[in-house]
């Protein structure tokens, strides 16, 4: 391996899950040069999934979710300072404090932030929250602990649903307003969204679908007091959580000439960023929620994922490729996986459920609230979602990786297929939803069937 790739200056922008895992992998792969990690949050890398679960339930405080470090990264951690620009010719990252950092190779791992309420004045009312950072989670958890009369959650995607679930578990009244027809419909399609709606209502959530929130109201002292809905109704509440999905942190790349836009920074399967003309760069890499990358199993569509597992897997591939010459580089081919816990249910997903035209309930039933739903697109398996049945997920992952025919063959004895009747997957147009999708397909439709062979080593 050429010595120069193991040496030199690497800068990582984004000091969270992808940034940390990349820094660790660079050292594991033998990188001996200088490593700088820039993060605009003041905290060392921490985990976000507990923020909408254990932290809101009061079972952990927001400052206890630090990510474990797998090894010493021997890095210069520049925390609390944002990157404000990238000069790809001079190969420098500009920082908000006026400094600029030279690099030989750069990793962009700036993730996403919560989509804010569109009216800034209303968004600034005391009692209105978004949930992405540990500081935001800490503030919200404090309000929930104080026992508000009612919480209004705007958006019934994964984050909004988990917040509603935590509120109910704490005995707090909650109203959920969602523009789409049901919770989670943008991520999981029609069948499971019906179960999600039942779970909300059975747990006492005042679920309002097919409505939008038009105005957030405050008292004369700037405190949130409630909201007006598009159906003419009004919700009185003390706390409002805006859960409208995520915005990619790409503004700092506006003058960089990279293919950076609202759906993220486009890169190839080796995590190398594209420039605005679609030419792949060889010194700028991308990983995690901010990336947008092609996947052969999903018709080479560019995927934008907001998945913990993807951030880890892609960061490891990016780091490997940053210190490896061409022939030794690896593709990022991990099959997307995701989990959520809400209303006592454990929901796990593998593949891309929105990349589907039909589904089949392969195991269990909606009535039992324990089931596996398999998703197919043009006659092959593309995803599966289990509810309290996670043990089967590896089996379905294998079906996805091998482009198995859909509906899947009637299972072996331990995997009895509950039904072989396929029904439309009923994935709505994301523009009709309050919650942004955690998976976005942003490319052309597929016309080929492919099997992925995972390279070893
Ligand atoms: C409340 C919540 C619950 C979640 N639950 C789950 C779950 O159950 N399952 C699951 O699979 N996933 C879940 N996720 C998603 C998961 O946490 C993300 O996929 C993961 O955090 C992505 O990591 P990342 O490093 O790519 O991006 P991020 O974690 O978003 O980190 C990016 C970092 O870069 C920083 N940054 C941004 N711009 C700049 C700049 N210009 N200069 C310097 N720094 C910058 C950001 O402030 C941030 O610290 C959840 C997310 C949230 C918010």
Task: Note the topology.
Elements: E1 9-13, H1 17-28, E2 34-39, E3 76-79, E4 83-87, E5 92-95, E6 100-102, E7 105-108, E8 112-114, H2 120-123, E9 128-129, H3 134-145, E10 150-154, H4 158-169, E11 173-178, H5 185-188, H6 190-202, E12 206-209, E13 213-218, E14 224-229, E15 234-236, E16 239-242, E17 246-248, E18 260-261, E19 264-266, E20 272-274, E21 280-286, E22 291-295, E23 301-305, H7 308-322, E24 337-342, E25 345-351, E26 358-365, E27 370-377, E28 380-387, H8 393-401, E29 423-424, E30 439-441
Parallel strand pairs: 1-2, 1-7, 2-3, 7-21, 9-16, 10-11, 10-16, 11-12, 19-22
Antiparallel strand pairs: 4-5, 5-6, 8-17, 13-14, 14-15, 18-19, 20-21, 22-23, 23-30, 24-25, 25-28, 26-27, 26-29, 27-28
Helix pairs in contact: 1-7
The structure holds flavin-adenine dinucleotide.
Describe the structure.
This protein has about 450 residues and is α/β, with parallel strands linked by helices. It contains eight helices and 30 strands. The protein has helices at about 15-30, 120-125, 135-145, 160-170, 185-190, 190-200, 310-320, 395-400; strands spanning about 10-15, 35-40, 75-80, 85, 90-95, 100, 105-110, 110-115, 130, 150-155, 175-180, 205-210, 215-220, 225-230, 235, 240, 245-250, 260, 265, 270-275, 280-285, 290-295, 300-305, 335-340, 345-350, 360-365, 370-375, 380-385, 425, 440. Helix 1 packs parallel to helix 7 (about 310-320). The two termini are about 15 Å apart. It binds flavin-adenine dinucleotide. Flavin-adenine dinucleotide binds next to helix 1, strand 2, helix 7 and strand 24. Flavin-adenine dinucleotide binds near residues 17 and 159.
């Amino acid at each position: 391996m050429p010595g120069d790739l193991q040496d030199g200056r690497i800068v990582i922008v984004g000091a969270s899950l992808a940034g940390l895992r990349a820094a660790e992998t660079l050292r594991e792969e033998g990188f001996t040069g200088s490593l700088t990690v820039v993060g605009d949050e003041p905290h060392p890398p921490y985990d976000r999934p507990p923020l909408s679960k254990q932290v809101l339930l009061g079972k952990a405080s927001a400052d206890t979710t630090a990510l474990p470090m797998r090894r010493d990264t021997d890095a210069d951690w520049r925390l609390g300072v944002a990157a404000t620009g990238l000069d790809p010719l001079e190969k420098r990252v500009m920082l908000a404090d006026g400094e600029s950092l030279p690099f030989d190779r750069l990793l962009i791992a700036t993730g996403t932030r919560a989509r804010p309420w569109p009216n800034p004045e209303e968004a600034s009312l005391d009692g209105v929250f978004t949930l992405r950072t540990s500081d935001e989670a800490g503030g919200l958890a404090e309000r929930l602990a104080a026992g508000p009369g009612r919480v209004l959650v705007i958006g019934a995607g994964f984050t909004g649903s988990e917040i509603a679930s935590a509120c109910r578990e704490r005995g707090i009244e909650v109203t959920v307003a969602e523009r789409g027809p049901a919770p989670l419909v943008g991520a999981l399609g029609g069948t499971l969204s019906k179960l999600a709606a039942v779970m909300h209502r059975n747990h006492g959530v005042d679920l309002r679908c097919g409505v939008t929130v038009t105005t957030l109201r405050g008292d004369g002292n700037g405190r949130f007091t409630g909201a007006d809905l598009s159906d003419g109704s009004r919700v009185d509440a003390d706390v409002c959580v805006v859960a409208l999905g995520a915005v990619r942190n790409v503004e700092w790349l506006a003058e960089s000439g990279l293919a950076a836009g609202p759906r993220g920074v486009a890169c190839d399967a080796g995590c190398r960023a594209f420039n605005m003309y679609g030419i792949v760069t060889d010194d700028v890499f991308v990983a995690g929620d901010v990336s947008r990358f092609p996947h052969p199993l999903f018709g080479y569509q560019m995927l934008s994922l907001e998945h913990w597992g993807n951030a880890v897997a892609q960061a490891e591939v990016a780091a490997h490729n940053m210190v490896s010459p061409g022939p030794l580089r690896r593709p990022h081919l991990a099959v997307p996986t995701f989990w959520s816990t809400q209303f006592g249910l454990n929901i796990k997903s593998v593949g891309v459920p929105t990349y589907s035209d039909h589904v089949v309930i392969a195991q269990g039933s909606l009535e039992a609230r324990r089931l596996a739903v398999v998703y197919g697109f043009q006659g092959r398996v593309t995803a599966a979602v289990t509810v309290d049945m996670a043990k089967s997920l590896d089996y379905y992952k294998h079906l996805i990786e091998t482009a198995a025919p859909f509906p899947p063959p009637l299972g072996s004895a331990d995997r009895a297929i509950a039904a072989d009747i396929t029904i439309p997957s009923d994935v709505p147009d994301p523009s009709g939803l309050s919650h942004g999708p955690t998976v976005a397909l942003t490319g052309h439709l597929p016309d080929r069937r492919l099997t992925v062979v995972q390279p070893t080593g």
